[in-house]
């Protein structure tokens, strides 16, 4: 059965992919903070860059 919005009847049971990405984003930021505390600025910069890429993906999904 299809509702007027075009989604299937069971569409509400599908997981939101942005939630999974947001958890990964938070994990990367935490790892970056720990790397910074340990004095590993290269790892901090790399992890922060990866987190930023995830944030942009999240934004793109939420706008779509």
Automatic annotation (TrEMBL):
This one is known as Lacal_2735 family protein
Q: Which UniProt keywords apply?
A: Coiled coil
- Which residues are in coiled coils? 37-64
